[in-house]
């Protein structure tokens, strides 16, 4: 049982793919107006580990999570476990850090109201490491567990995007936000969602084949860029012409809200193959820019059509691909153009925490706690929204 309190202290854990992440967050307010204060946020990226393989290797990810979890936990406890108000005089902390007993861990866990952990979707061997770590801590300190959904993490990451002060986040005007259209674009998913409130949402469509992040990673590989390909493509695209090559925009005219990116990737493959056969040089920057533009066009067109159909007041984009500044700019320009004549233009909300992190897991854990949503405490690689 979680005690009903005005402010809850949350420890969150994320290990669904190749980032091990933990956060310590305090949350308050109801579903109408949740507020968060962040006191600890650590991420250990495994990019270097997987890079030689051109993608995430589940067995390696699992081993790295097992190594990282206790180290990150110690970091959260030692360095950031104390809220500024509790810390008192700053000098006290350093000498305290040198204490090598586990008093600070006990003190830290004492304040935690619940532990929330990602149970899916993702790589199951990786997910289990976080789940087991959470279960052990919960048993040791007699704390409740809140299993949560990684996709809801991305969806709710916007809750930590509206900063008021150094550590504090809150939605300033809930009334202006819903209904909203949320686009989740990551390495494993491309999903369009209608969000009516923080507890009600409906999936409108998703990719029928590759996720858009996956397409970025595959195209990057085709032109010899390392994993993860998204940031590399974005960088290279700056030197290229987005109009140079007319790659297809799959399903852009379809009336439904589904996406497809595998054909786009294949047409990049054929384009490179034909040039290679003809003995011509490969215009890598133009390919990166034209591919990025084609992918962005489809995402933007379908999202804005949903905004129009449902009269959405805001557009939330989240997930790793939303880190892409060019795509963000294209979104902003398209909104400006399409809704030029409207008095209230839909608000574009881009999550500050777009790639995998534990803050978004604290946010979705808190929402699950408020709306009493109960996921199973076991890894589910295919969990959906
Ligand atoms: O959300 P995320 O960190 O993990 C998943 O849940 O999948 O997303 C990772 C994906 C990768 O495919 C990566 O290439 C892509 O996000 N990504 C980007 C950018 N940064 C990361 N794609 C395009 N542009 C970027 N700047
Ligand atoms: Zn993710």
Keywords, please?
alpha/beta; Nucleotidyltransferase, domain 5; 385 residues; binds zinc ion; single chain; binds 5'-O-[(R)-(carboxyoxy)(hydroxy)phosphoryl]adenosine; 19% strand; five-stranded mixed beta sheet; six-stranded mixed beta sheet
Fold and architecture overview:
The protein has 13 helices and eleven strands. It has 385 residues and is an alpha/beta fold. Helix 7 packs across helix 13 and helix 8 packs across helix 9. The protein is globular. About 3% of the residues have low confidence. The chain binds 5'-O-[(R)-(carboxyoxy)(hydroxy)phosphoryl]adenosine and zinc ion. The site of zinc ion has 5 residues, from helix 7.
Beta-strand proportion: 15-25%
CATH class of the largest domain: Alpha Beta
The number of helical segments is: 13
Order of helices and strands: EEEHHHHHEHEHEEEEHHHHEHEH
Shape: globular
Q: What value does the average pLDDT take?
A: 91
Provide the number of structural domains: 2
Task: Please sum up the structure shown.
42% of the residues lie in helices and 19% in strands. It is an alpha/beta fold. The strands form 2 sheets. It has a 6-stranded mixed beta sheet with strand order 5-4-1-2-3-6, sandwiched between helices. It has a 5-stranded mixed beta sheet with strand order 9-8-7-10-11, with helices on both faces.
């Amino acid at each position: 049982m979680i005690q009903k309190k005005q402010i809850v202290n949350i420890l969150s854990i994320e290990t669904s793919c190749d980032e091990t992440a933990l956060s310590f967050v305090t949350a308050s307010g109801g579903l109408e107006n949740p507020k968060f204060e962040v006191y600890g946020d650590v991420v250990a990226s495994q990019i270097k580990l997987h890079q030689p393989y051109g993608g995430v290797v589940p067995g390696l990810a699992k081993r790295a999570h097992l190594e990282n979890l206790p180290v990150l936990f110690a970091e959260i406890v030692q360095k950031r476990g104390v809220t500024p108000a509790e810390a008192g005089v700053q000098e006290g902390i350093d000498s305290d850090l040198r204490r090598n007993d586990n008093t600070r861990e006990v003190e830290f866990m004492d304040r935690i109201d619940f532990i929330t952990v990602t149970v899916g979707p993702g790589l199951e061997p990786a997910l289990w490491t976080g789940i087991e770590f959470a279960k052990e801590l919960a048993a040791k300190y007699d704390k409740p567990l809140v299993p949560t959904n990684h996709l809801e993490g991305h969806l709710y990451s916007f809750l930590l995007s509206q900063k008021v002060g150094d550590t504090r986040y809150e939605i300033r005007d809930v009334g202006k936000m819903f209904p909203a259209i949320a686009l989740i674009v990551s390495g494993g998913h491309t999903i369009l969602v209608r969000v009516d409130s923080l507890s009600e949402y409906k999936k409108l469509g998703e990719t029928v084949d590759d996720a858009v992040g996956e397409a970025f990673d595959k195209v990057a590989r085709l032109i010899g860029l390392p994993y993860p390909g998204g940031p590399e493509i974005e960088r290279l695209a700056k030197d290229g012409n987005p109009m140079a090559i007319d790659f297809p925009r799959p399903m852009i005219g379809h009336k439904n809200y589904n996406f497809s990116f595998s054909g786009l990737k294949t047409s990049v493959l054929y384009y490179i193959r034909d040039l290679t056969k003809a003995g011509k040089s490969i215009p890598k920057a133009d390919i990166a820019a034209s591919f990025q533009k084609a992918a962005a066009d489809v995402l933007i067109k379908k999202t804005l059509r949903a905004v129009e159909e449902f009269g959405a007041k805001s557009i939330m984009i989240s997930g790793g691909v939303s880190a892409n500044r060019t795509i963000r700019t294209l979104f902003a320009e398209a909104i400006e153009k399409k809704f030029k004549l409207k008095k209230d233009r839909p608000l574009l909300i881009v999550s500050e925490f777009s790639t995998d992190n534990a803050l978004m897991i604290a946010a979705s854990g808190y929402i699950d706690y408020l709306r009493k949503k109960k996921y199973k405490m076991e890894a589910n690689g295919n969990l959906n929204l």
